[in-house]
């Protein structure tokens, strides 16, 4: 951002003028289209009185930029909040433009909201899901400040509000089209009645609102007839009556989630008569059985996505009956459902448009897979994750007839061999995602075929396999690779990682969990060759030292780092990460025994975006934990077995860290912390998880004791 502002200054003062500046804005790499709220170019913006003549040279040159140009600059900074903040501090006109440009607020604590609402009057979406507690007073202020602009509000993980707060938002914000109230387990029919007054509502999530009954959902159905998406997952108070009311009144519904509800075949019959229904989720609907499905008569031609996972009472007879009346399906999810046999998959023949099939956790037969191969020749996605019964014969029959496959998941299909992989790589050369964790019968020669043939791969998961450095070398042709998971691959070393680093510059996620052969040289190569790296898992890579962390600190986009069980890492390495990676949000340093308070002090200073941290078994005392408590974004902490931590120090940290939502603590602390203090922290929205786990002596300590 500083460079951008500097360039603007040089262009303005260097005489290049507005023409050069404007051309520069439009001529660079493609950027998001100008926001819909951008207005035609206005006269030059001048916030104060402008004196002409002799005083003209003293005017702020930035004040001459039109609002449209400023919005174009802000569009380019949309993914960089720190840069937007810096932009707003340049001058008064930039500050005003940034205030008018922002369309979304995501505060970490509801107490920050009033000031934010005063600063940003044009906000369209308020996301309060990160605020553990949101009171009715807060919702009153949202409704009063954003009367005409608010279109979306998310309260999916917040507690503390009632129907009164919901009613205030609904009554004041007539343009509201989206509400997410998932997990609001205290909301009842009174809140549903308030929601029913939102006449323009199009998308509504009520997952786990278990107190809402048919009466409440009836109010919503009558009042919100423009609904296109409705999620009633785990709404156990809703029966066929409520579902029927929705189907009768909300004719515009496209997406309906009835997972884990008490709906039966009678309710399903009415739902399938919705004229525009495209996506239906019936996960875990135990009241729908074969008998009710066999009685279905109305054909639903508009349905494109059907999720029947975990529907144990349904067998092939009922499922075949359902598929016969939903012939327009494009995506079918039958995970953890009935056995996949020839008689079941024969009904797939009518699904001419089927592109995605998920059979995770099902028992499959070779005959069933061969029937899918013959019936579905346009598949782009196939998931057989943790399916028993998958053989080379069955899998090969599908991949050889579906050469357009782009996503294939065969995780834990332990019976497939190099034969399957040869057919996959020769037939499906357009694969983008390949997940095959724990396919232990595939040899190292088989894995080399992936890199030799599938050059379009972006996501590759080979965790817990016989992969070696030659296999990684073969992946050198996969230049688009962005996610690589090769944890528990004990035969890989720095040599293989160096090949990846040289040829996969777009890598964003690397998982090396328990890959014991990896050392600093390989990580240094990755950090240098893959500067876009965002997520790295080096847990239990015991040869890793601070040198690796210093190299990774050059990856400024790094947001997730897991180095648990790396005993050679010290505070120096963590400090380098804190200083070099300002976007860090998740850090796991469990069992990094040489990380102490010095690292916590620097983390508290530089890692202001830190959301989650695991400090277990580190050498951290009250001082370090109190410093960390000053990080306003911190929400999730695991602090087991910190020898230098006292009950008083822990109590002070809990009070100081106001945004906590989850804390894991050793149960030995529970009787030592005053009960009123714990209740106060819980009232703020924090959940305590007390772990009764004995202290594990570090291996290094055992070695020292043995030597002495």
Automatic annotation (TrEMBL):
One of its GO terms (biological process) is SCF-dependent proteasomal ubiquitin-dependent protein catabolic process. This is F-box/LRR-repeat protein 15-like leucin rich repeat domain-containing protein. InterPro entries: F-box-like_dom_sf, FBXL15_LRR, Leu-rich_rpt_Cys-con_subtyp, LRR_dom_sf. Residues 239-455, 467-634 form the F-box/LRR-repeat protein 15-like leucin rich repeat domain. SUPFAM superfamilies: F-box domain, RNI-like. Transmembrane segments: none annotated. It comes from Zingiber officinale (Ginger). GO terms for cellular component: SCF ubiquitin ligase complex.
């Amino acid at each position: 951002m500083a460079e951008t502002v500097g360039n603007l200054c040089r262009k303005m003062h260097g005489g290049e003028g507005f023409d050069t500046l404007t051309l520069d804005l439009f001529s660079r790499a493609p950027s998001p289209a100008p926001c819909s709220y951008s207005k035609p170019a206005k006269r030059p913006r001048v916030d104060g009185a402008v004196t002409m003549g002799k005083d003209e040279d003293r005017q702020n040159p930035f004040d001459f930029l039109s609002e449209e140009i400023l919005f174009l600059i802000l569009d380019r900074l949309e993914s960089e909040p720190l840069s937007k903040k810096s932009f707003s501090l340049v001058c008064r006109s930039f500050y005003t433009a940034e205030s008018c440009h922002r369309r979304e607020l995501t505060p970490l604590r509801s107490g920050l909201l009033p000031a934010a609402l005063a600063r940003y009057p044009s906000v369209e979406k308020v996301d309060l899901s990160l605020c553990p507690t949101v009171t009715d007073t807060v919702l009153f202020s949202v409704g009063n400040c954003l009367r005409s602009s608010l279109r979306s509000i998310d309260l999916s993980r917040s507690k503390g509000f009632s129907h009164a707060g919901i009613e205030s938002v609904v009554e004041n914000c007539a343009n509201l089209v989206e509400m997410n109230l998932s997990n609001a387990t205290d909301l009842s029919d009174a809140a549903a009645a308030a929601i029913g007054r939102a006449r323009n509502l199009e998308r509504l999530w009520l997952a786990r609102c278990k107190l809402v009954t048919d009466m409440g959902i009836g109010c919503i159905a009558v009042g919100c007839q423009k609904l296109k998406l409705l999620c009633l997952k785990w709404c156990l108070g809703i029966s066929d009556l409520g579902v029927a009311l929705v189907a009768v009144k909300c004719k515009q519904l496209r997406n309906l989630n009835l997972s884990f509800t008490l709906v039966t075949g009678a309710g399903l019959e009415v739902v399938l008569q919705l004229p525009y229904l495209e996506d239906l989720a019936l996960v875990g609907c135990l009241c729908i059985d074969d008998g009710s499905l066999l009685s279905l008569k109305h054909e639903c031609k508009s349905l494109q996505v059907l999720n029947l996972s975990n529907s144990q009472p349904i067998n092939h007879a009922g499922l075949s009956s359902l598929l016969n009346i939903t012939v327009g399906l494009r995506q079918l999810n039958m995970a953890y459902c009935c056995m996949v046999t020839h008689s079941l998959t024969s009904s797939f023949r009518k699904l001419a448009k089927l592109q995605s099939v998920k059979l995770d956790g099902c028992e499959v037969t070779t005959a069933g897979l061969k029937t899918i191969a013959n019936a579905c020749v346009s598949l782009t996605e196939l998931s057989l994750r943790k399916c028993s019964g998958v053989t080379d014969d069955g899998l090969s029959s599908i991949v050889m007839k579906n050469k357009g496959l782009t996503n294939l998941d065969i995780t834990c299909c332990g019976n497939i061999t190099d034969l399957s992989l040869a057919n996959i790589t020769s037939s499906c050369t357009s694969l983008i995602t390949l997940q095959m964790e724990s396919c232990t019968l595939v040899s190292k020669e088989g894995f080399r075929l992936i890199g030799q043939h599938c050059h379009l791969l972006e996501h590759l998961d080979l965790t817990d396999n016989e992969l070696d450095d030659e296999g990684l070398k073969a992946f050198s042709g996969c230049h688009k690779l962005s996610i690589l998971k090769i944890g528990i691959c004990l035969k890989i070393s720095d040599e293989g990682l160096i090949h990846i680093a040289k040829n996969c510059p777009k890598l964003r996620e690397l998982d090396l969990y328990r890959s014991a052969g990896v050392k600093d040289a390989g990580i240094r190569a990755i950090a240098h060759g893959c500067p876009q790296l965002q997520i790295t898992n080096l847990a239990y890579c015991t040869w890793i030292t601070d040198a690796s962390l210093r190299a990774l600190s050059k990856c400024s986009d790094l947001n997730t780092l897991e180095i648990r069980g790396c005993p050679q890492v010290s505070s120096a390495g963590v400090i380098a990460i804190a200083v070099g990676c300002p976007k860090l949000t998740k850090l796991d340093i469990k069992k990094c025994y040489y990380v102490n308070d010095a690292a916590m002090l620097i983390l508290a200073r530089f890692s202001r975006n830190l959301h989650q941290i695991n400090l277990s078994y580190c050498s951290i005392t009250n001082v370090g934990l109190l410093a960390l408590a000053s990080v306003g974004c911190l929400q999730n902490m695991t602090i087991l077995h910190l020898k230098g931590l006292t009950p008083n120090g822990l109590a002070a940290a809990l009070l100081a860290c106001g945004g906590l939502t989850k804390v894991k603590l050793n149960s030995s602390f529970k009787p030592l912390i005053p009960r009123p203090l714990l209740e106060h922290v819980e009232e703020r929205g924090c959940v305590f998880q007390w772990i009764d786990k004995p202290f594990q002596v570090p291996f290094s300590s055992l070695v020292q004791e043995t030597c002495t």
